[in-house]
């Protein structure tokens, strides 16, 4: 078992590649450092994605997120870096990453970034009576 952060993200084959389904994850313990002050920034990351051929492996995701703990990153940059790395790793049909940073100087920051695969159309919303 690894006890060190890692910059690698691993993936595994999607068990249902012909079906559009959504994977949602909440990661309430994300930390990085403020690039100006060096103080820690804390955030809850919320990931929603529709996989294509591959899915994100959870242990590698945990170790990957841990790798940001000692990095100085602006909120906007770190959110987009994580999203881009996830897209590069699993090439999802759709991916949305929301980073809700805790209060700093009286200001809460939320950054939302997303990716759509070319040609992918989300299924119609179903409304039940």
How would you sum up this structure, described in words?
The chain has helices at residues 58-66, 75-90; strands at 11-13, 23-33, 40-50, 54-56, 94-104, 107-116. It is an alpha+beta fold and 129 residues long. The chain has one domain: GTP cyclohydrolase I, C-terminal domain/NADPH-dependent 7-cyano-7-deazaguanine reductase, N-terminal domain (GTP Cyclohydrolase I, domain 2, 2-Layer Sandwich), CATH 3.30.1130.10. It has a four-stranded antiparallel sheet with strand order 2-3-5-6, covered by helices on one side. The chain is globular, with a radius of gyration of 16 Å. It starts with 10 loop residues before the first strand and ends in a 13-residue tail after the last strand. The mean pLDDT is 95.
Instruction: Report the sheet-strand fraction.
Output: 35-45%
Helical content (DSSP H or I, runs of 4+): 10-25%
Architecture, CATH level 2?
2-Layer Sandwich
CATH topology description: GTP Cyclohydrolase I, domain 2
**What is the structural class?**
alpha+beta
> Major β-sheet, in short?
4 strands, antiparallel
The total count of helices amounts to 2
- Sketch the topology as an H/E string, one letter per element: EEEEHHEE
Mean pLDDT over the full residue set: 95
Please provide the count of β strands.
6
Strand arrangement, largest sheet? 2-3-5-6
CATH first level: Alpha Beta
Fourth-tier CATH superfamily name: GTP cyclohydrolase I, C-terminal domain/NADPH-dependent 7-cyano-7-deazaguanine reductase, N-terminal domain
